[in-house]
Write a structure and sequence with these properties.
- The structure is a homodimer of 316-residue chains.
- The first copy, chain A, is built from ten helices and 13 strands.
- With 316 residues, chain A is α+β, with helices and mostly antiparallel strands.
- Chain A has two domains: 139 residues, 60s Ribosomal Protein L30, Chain: A (2-Layer Sandwich), CATH 3.30.1330.10; 162 residues, PurM-like C-terminal domain (Phosphoribosyl-aminoimidazole Synthetase, Chain A, domain 2, Alpha-Beta Complex).
- The longest helix of chain A is centred in the first third of the chain and has 18 residues.
- Strand 2 of chain A pairs antiparallel with strand 3 of chain B.
- Chains A, B: It catalyses: thiamine phosphate + ATP = thiamine diphosphate + ADP.
- Chains A, B: Catalyzes the ATP-dependent phosphorylation of thiamine-monophosphate (TMP) to form thiamine-pyrophosphate (TPP), the active form of vitamin B1.
Chain lengths: 316, 316
């Protein structure tokens, strides 16, 4: 049930795209897309929705919305060790605003092009601003990273820094200035696609910390049948975070989610390899704890060890 | 960024599902699903969104919403000749209402089970009621049905009857009684999956008439570089439609869309085969015109031939 206006929108979106891939047999413009998945890989697929006023504040830069709506999905693919390939975009717009759409597609296709991802389909509808993206990728089946493979004694690592996006949002909502470094973390998170691929074969588990590192580690614990001990003092922070985060709110901000870093486990024998990998990828990798027998996430903070309740970002 | 409430919703949805498939390597519960696509088929993928108040009236039976949100996507796969396999569900709910969700999943999984489709992922978020479904399926690459293959002289066929859903909606909004036959067409459309598969190899083009048969035929004309001549008097109607549709509104209702029938073309030599197929599938197949050289959709109505403007259902 599409109107002429919707066809114009779809045509506009289609023409903004520059990437082509030989495995797209039939892209936007028929009842469905037709794609050629590689025979020797598993297909990896995820879908996330961002709603205005829930996942991003009213007035967010449309470029940031476009970028982030794809980024959160590429982050999920990265957490499986998958290389992204295709995506679909379901865009619900309150009105047909070409200028907004141009900026949105700028952000969306900039990130898509950076990862050689082709938009192959989707839908445009009328309603409150909401963006659902479905992303697909591939991984050799036996090398996929999951939540269930952590072993007792494995180190727990996290990429990048934690809490920057949450601090940016907090300062923005409080009417305080937000340094560019923090704003970028909120608006244009970098999905750790290269890291995810590089971890294939030796990381024993992996998850993206979109829901907050402690909550997400809780999922790995449950799936792997283990406990996690995390050193709160080891959680990596950026210089901007270090300078601006109120002391009493640091842990809360660092475990609020919206970070899109990878939290993964690996046997201690891989420490040197991971130090080298961090250098090669120019990406901070920090060891924050280890898996033990038991259950739940236990946080040591200034010498104190306590079972921690989940602290994820709650918007449902 | 998921809260405990969202995890409960996902867990509830997960437990409502009964279908299992060996090609689902990893379903709901990790960062992404992992799937094994068959090497000798193309992957076919589509995604459609239904918004409350736009695509279905406020107060629609949740079972119908669940059914229809999947059906409209299976209809797109059918139009490619694809067999469905997996789907993802992005569900945006104004509140966490278990009774509503139970009825929604009843409808959704009833249709999914009928087509051996497994829900492998998605998202639940807070916001105005909106449902995005992404559906996947397979078709042998060389046998896929597209919009671009119609030839001069090919017959144009349509499955089922047209206008029932539009008439149901019109009567409902006018406060008039709606016979069950019409209500079913609106609430629980039957995606023509078996027909789509059966048309592989001899239908020269295919599209689902979700946007209205004349508008959708216009897309086939554009993609195939042809004109279509349609006999308005041949458009198939149900007995209920015939009895209740106001004479002056018939063509408008029949070309309003929301019908989810397949409109396809085939060389005249296949007429007998299609009559047999209709009998085998217990599904009405009606010849409504033919493709000619030229462009646009031309409608003959009571002897009158006129180029027709698009009359699709406009909600954007």
């Amino acid at each position: 049930m599409k109107s002429a206006g919707e066809f114009d929108l779809i045509e506009f979106i289609r023409t903004q795209q520059s990437v082509v891939r030989p495995d797209v047999l039939l892209g936007i413009g028929d009842d469905a897309a037709m794609l050629q998945a590689p025979a020797d890989h598993a297909l990896v697929m995820c879908s996330d929705t961002l709603n205005e006023g829930v996942h991003f504040p009213v007035g967010t830069d449309p470029e940031a919305i476009g970028w982030k709506s794809l980024a959160v999905n590429l982050s999920d693919l990265a957490a499986m060790g998958a290389c992204p390939s295709w995506c679909l975009l379901n865009l619900c717009l309150p009105e047909s605003d070409t200028r907004w759409l141009e900026r949105f597609t700028n952000g969306f296709f900039e990130l898509a092009a950076a990862h050689d991802v082709v938009l192959v389909g989707g839908d445009t509808t009328r309603g409150p601003l909401s963006i659902s993206v479905t992303a697909c990728g591939f991984v050799p089946r036996e090398l996929a990273l999951t939540r269930s493979g952590a072993k007792v004694g494995d180190d727990i690592w996290v990429s990048g820094t934690l809490g920057d996006a949450a601090l940016a949002l907090r300062r923005m909502l409080a009417g305080e200035s937000v340094p560019a470094e923090l704003m970028d973390a909120l608006d244009r998170p970098t999905p750790r696609v290269a890291l995810g691929s590089a971890l294939r074969g030796f990381a024993s588990s992996c998850i993206d910390v979109s829901d907050g590192v402690l909550q997400d580690l809780g999922h790995v614990c449950a799936a792997s049948g283990l406990a996690a001990e995390v050193a709160g003092d080891w959680l990596p922070v950026s210089d901007a975070f270090d300078a601006l985060a109120p002391r009493e709110a640091r842990l809360q901000l660092q475990s609020s989610g919206d970070d899109y870093e990878l939290c993964f486990s690996a046997a201690p024998g891989y420490r040197n390899l991971l130090v080298d990998l961090a250098e090669k990828l120019d990406l901070r990798l920090t060891r924050i704890g280890s898996f033990t027998s038991g259950q739940g996430v236990h946080l040591t903070q200034a010498g104190r060890l306590s079972a921690l309740e989940k602290r994820g970002h709650a918007h449902f």
